[in-house]
Specification:
Elements lengths: L4 H15 L3 E8 L5 E8 L8 E5 L6 H5 L3 H5 L3 E5 L18 H9 L10 E6 L1 H13 L4 E7 L7 H11 L6 H5 L4 H11 L11 H4 L3 E2 L7 E5 L2 E5 L4 E2 L3 H4 L2 H9 L17 E6 L8 H10 L3 E6 L6 H4 L1 H17 L7
Parallel strand pairs: 3-4, 3-5, 5-6, 6-11, 11-12
Antiparallel strand pairs: 1-2, 2-4, 7-10, 8-9
Length: about 350
């Protein structure tokens, strides 16, 4: 038997999380209207012995995949908690309730047992996770949420921006849901091209490999993926299923996209009291760089903007070493700042 793509990625992600001392955990939280919501998260066992740090994933698949290059270096200084947002992975919202807005997601995260209520939490959110990070920081206030990192997250996004994204993609898709949750190889390839600036090997694979549960039948075909600077073979007879990354809870995520309040009167961007680090890839085609300057102006005076050159929508994946250094420097200097709010 060979090694297929998804098991390899899942293995590498889990290996990184376990190396960071994180364990897979699940919490059942009560709903106001009755019933429970389930949140799956990764965190060290026991009570936090280091300052807590919450990593909030974006709309893309697999929180572990999005943060696997961060958890080990961050865990040396922080009690790292990585949740699956509601409607993602192992997390499920309240039954018979509307899909959660960003505020609903934030409220669920604030109730996680892995985050001690007596300690201020540093928060890092990417893309959609940046919406949630902002909502959490504003709702909980500086007494509960400390420094905030928002990466490639257009808090000023409008319906016009969604239409512009579809045009950049080629004008072939009717909705952002069709583009962001692809059902065919061509759309999956286009999404990867929009997300990453640096050429991804997976985007160069033929459609029959990218397509759903396609068996590589050519006995002479030997593919390799460059992962963590090592070539991992994908031998003939493997099943390579990139579509599973996007099919998981697809209908729930479509409804979740409809519940996004960014760009509506319900979501007004106001300055945060916390120190804020805004990170943006200079070749982001999902949320273009010019939006970074507009977001910075709206977030107040306590905002630093770091632009990552030659990266796209996910600098934590394309330039992880610099991302980790910049974020850790910001978090640690913010902790020492005389402007920090005491409990």
């Amino acid at each position: 038997m060979g090694i297929s793509f998804l098991p390899v990625m899942e293995y590498l992600a889990r290996r990184a999380f376990l190396a960071a001392g994180l364990c897979s955990q699940t919490a059942s939280l009560p709903c106001e209207a009755g019933g429970t919501r389930t949140i799956h998260y990764w965190a060290p066992p026991g009570e936090p012995r280091l300052p807590p740090l919450l990593l909030i994933h974006g709309f893309g698949p697999m929180a572990t995949w999005q943060w696997r290059r961060q958890v080990v270096p961050f865990s040396r200084r922080y009690h790292v908690v990585v949740p699956d947002l509601l409607c993602f992975g192992g997390s499920s919202p309240c039954p018979s309730s509307p899909p959660p807005s960003e505020s609903g997601q934030a409220a669920a995260l604030d109730a996680l047992p892995g985050l001690a209520k007596t300690t201020r939490v540093a928060v890092v959110g990417t893309s959609y996770g940046g919406f949630v990070a902002y909502a959490l920081a504003r709702a909980a206030g500086p007494g509960r949420v400390g420094p905030v990192v928002i990466s490639n997250s257009d808090l000023l996004k409008t319906a016009e921006d969604d239409r512009a994204l579809l045009q950049r993609a080629g004008g072939e898709w009717a909705s952002t849901a069709d583009l962001l949750m692809p059902l065919d190889a061509r759309t999956a390839r286009r999404l990867m091209e929009l997300t990453f600036y640096r050429r991804q090997l997976t985007a160069m694979l033929p459609d029959f490999v990218i397509g759903e549960t396609v068996r590589v039948t050519n006995p002479l075909l030997h593919l390799h993926y460059l992962i963590d600077d090592q070539y991992v073979p994908v031998l003939s007879g493997d099943l390579v299923d990139l579509q599973k990354l996007f099919r998981d809870k697809r209908e729930e995520k479509i409804e979740l996209m409809k519940a996004i309040t960014v760009g509506t009167d319900e979501f007004q961007v106001t300055p945060l009291e916390q120190d804020v680090l805004l990170i943006w890839g200079d070749h982001d085609q999902i949320f273009p760089l010019d939006k970074a300057f507009a977001v910075k102006r709206c977030l107040g005076e306590n905002v630093e903007l770091e632009i990552f050159k030659e990266t796209g929508h996910v600098p934590q994946m394309e330039d992880p070493n610099r991302f980790n250094d910049v974020v850790l420097d910001f978090l640690l200097s913010s902790q020492k700042s005389p402007n920090q709010h005491d409990q």
